[in-house]
Amino acid sequence: MKHLFFLNKYFYKYKWRIIPGLIFVIISIIFQILQAPVVGHAFNLITENISIYQLFDGFDRQEVIYNIFSTNLFFFGALILVIYMIRGLFLFFMRQTIILMSRHIEYDLKNEIYAHYQKLSLGFFRRNNTGDLMNRATEDVNRVRMYVGPAIMYTTNTTILFFTAIFFMFSVNVKLAFYALLPLPILVVIVYYVNTLINQKSEKIQEQLSRLSSFVQERFSGIRVIKSYVREAQTQEVFEEESNSYKTNSMSLVKVQALFYPAMLLLVGISTILTIYIGGEQVIAGTITAGNIAEFIIYINLLTFPVTMLGWVTTLIQRAAASQKRINEFLKLQPDITSNNVEKPEIEGNISFKNVSFTYPDTGIEAIKNVSFEIKKGQFVAIIGRTGSGKSTLANLIMRMYDTDSGKIEIDGKELRNINLNNYRSKIGFVPQEVFLFSDTIKNNIAFGLSEISEGQVETAAKNAAVYNNIVDFDQKFETMLGERGITLSGGQKQRVSIARALIKEPKILIFDDCLSAVDTKTEEEILGNLGTIMKGKTSILIAHRISTIKNADQIIVLDNGEIIEKGTHNELLNKGGAYTEMFNNQLLEEENA
Ligand SMILES: Nc1ncnc2c1ncn2[C@@H]1O[C@H](COP(=O)(O)OP(=O)(O)OP(=O)(O)O)[C@@H](O)[C@H]1O
């Protein structure tokens, strides 16, 4: 429960919705209860008037009595109608305030979670899977909404109705009230027991359902593999098995629910019989009127609702507490990377690594070991090395996706940790190794880093990334949709759109993380040629595997197992006859063989 205290700030924010809401609950209950004594009086009126009417059988007066009788009955009928209408009106107000408030809180909470997620660093997104992140921002928030809206509304409603009805019953007749309420504790126990059962089964069904949807989603994403390995029949079998288990669980839930309602009605029936029997005795004894019996039957029916609600509301609160606990776990996480400097100086593009070491916290892999190098503004620097040697990690450190464990990274002579991160990152054009494009138009994908888009800029960036001709060949040209609702680009086209996205920013520092691997050598030369012009006077860092890509670099850094083993220009490194030369010779051999 304590986890739900987090939401109190929202209750405070929406106090002018919740306070009137609770007042409307009380008013609607008063009018709900009021119908019982009114019906009781009407009942008494009927029994009394019928006997008077019969007394005047055969007399003219009988007509007058009939008229009075029917006018009174009409009055009571109209009164009950008015009571119902007023109650309905306040029920409307109640929902309009409390349920509306719950929607506002849901909206605020979702925004709070999303904004917080965005502040957290890359490591957080690596540690937690996307499904979990999404669930906390959607499913869990929805469960919390059920607490701030329906649960609070029904708890107040139930509690007030419960005590008011019982008070009214005891004030009419203690003995009758005692007997009429006798089956109630049994009903409470049954509701509690059945509710726990329903809960367990529903949770199981929910789990099964998400397993089933993940299964379907994954299999359809990998449909090409399934078809090429002819595994359709086997996949169908697994689906049927999963689906069957979902069906079995659902059916067992239906059975419990089917038994619950008749059991509940049976107990209400017993309570009614007891009321009529004991009430009948009291009427004969003259302690109550027949109208009181009718009144009691209404009370019993009014009480059934709160008792059955009890279980449901308890579940809502328990679920909301569990969900809020999960949400709080993420909300209380502080970003590993923070930047408090508000200054926004121009970035020149000088980068210096001084004895930098870095270990990935999750795996304990020491990816960078005591690395030192200098990149001067305007230089074209290449990083090369075997797979897993730490090249991408180096790029991540330059982007400050992670902080170093020891050593210093300096940008234009200032320590990276102390400079305004948003300003710095906005000056970097980064093309990651794994291309990611949004399900949006090509134009919006290229212009992603800009707040305002001009047609000319997008086209120039596409031309510089050597993807313009491919784009204009599509029917919709730059408006072509990508992703699930649109076309699928080839690997090389994706890489070039991603390059255009980095180039359009006119960055001061450009980082290419092995993003020319799916591009043929001729196109690669075209892109590198364009880069030579665009990046004149600006810093370019190119991570690559092909020596042909990087041979013109001002400086080549050779990494191995997280350490710099060689550094220099292409010719200097060839003269050394070390690891770089070995790589060069191997690639020459491969090309000749090819
Ligand atoms: N997010 C991560 N969490 C934990 N360990 C990681 C992470 N990313 C990389 N590593 C590990 O760090 C080491 C260096 O990886 P990195 O991706 O920097 O290599 P790379 O030189 O870019 O390789 P490749 O050429 O294959 O892209 C590897 O051993 C890798 O397993």
Report on this model:
- Among the domains are: 2-173 and 288-331, ABC transporter transmembrane region fold (Up-down Bundle), CATH 1.20.1560.10; 343-427 and 541-594, 3-Layer(aba) Sandwich (Rossmann fold).
- 66% of the residues lie in helices and 10% in strands.
- It has 21 helices and ten strands.
- The strands form two sheets. A six-stranded mixed β-sheet has the order 6-7-8-3-9-10, with helices on both faces. Strands 2-1-4-5 form a four-stranded antiparallel β-sheet, with helices on one face.
- The radius of gyration is 37 Å and the shape is elongated.
- The chain starts with 7 loop residues before the first helix and ends with a helix.
- Residues 126, 360, 362-363, 365, 367, 385, 387-393, 433, 514 line the site of adenosine-5'-triphosphate (ATP).
Entry keywords:
binds adenosine-5'-triphosphate; ABC transporter transmembrane region fold; six-stranded mixed beta sheet; 594 residues; Rossmann fold; 10 strands; elongated; four-stranded antiparallel beta sheet; alpha/beta
CATH topology of the domain at 2-173 and 288-331: ABC transporter transmembrane region fold
Hetero compounds: adenosine-5'-triphosphate
* Class from helix and strand fractions: alpha/beta
Give me the side-by-side strand order of the main sheet.
6-7-8-3-9-10
Provide mean pLDDT, rounded: 89
- Backbone shape: elongated
CATH class of the domain at 2-173 and 288-331, anyone? Answer: Mainly Alpha
What is the helix fraction of residues, given as a range?
A: 55-70%
The radius of gyration computed from the alpha-carbon positions, rounded to a whole number of angstroms, is 37 Å
Into which percentage range does the β-strand content fall? 5-15%
Beginning-to-end CA distance, first to last residue: 68 Å
CATH architecture classification name of the domain at 2-173 and 288-331: Up-down Bundle
How many helices in DSSP terms?
A: 21
Largest sheet: 6 strands, mixed
Strand count: 10
CATH-assigned homologous superfamily of the domain at 2-173 and 288-331: ABC transporter type 1, transmembrane domain
Uncertain runs are none
Membrane topology: Multi-pass membrane protein
Subcellular location: Cell membrane
Organism: Pedobacter cryotolerans
Domain ABC transmembrane type-1: 21-319
